[in-house]
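User: Quick sanity check before I run a bigger batch. Here is a single chain. Can you write out its predicted 3D structure?
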Amino acid sequence: MFDWLMRLVGARGASPPVAAPAGEEAPESGRPPPGQHWIYVTAPDCDVSSIVRSIEGVLKVTRDRNGFWRIAADQDVVTQVAKGIVSKGGSLTTLITFETLIELNARS
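Assistant: Done. Predicted structure follows.
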């Protein structure tokens, strides 16, 4: 059921998203490194990168080839990301953690 989404963000069967700046590689496993949390976001009418870079705990914000923003953080920042985007007038159309994708996949 969630197979398409898992592939879209690189969690299964497809190569990991292009989510690293030129010269850096995304982790080969397609999974967050130990101690990191990944959040995938789409909010087409705002500058996600500018909004979330100021959130404490955010390590990196990158855009993948599928239009998702991948936010890497060293702590759970889901609530702050959602509040930040909405408070700036953004339309938050997708917000899902890597862990949630794995859980949903296990249920299907």
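The helical segments are 3-8, 48-52, 78-87, 98-107.

User: Great, the batch can go ahead then.
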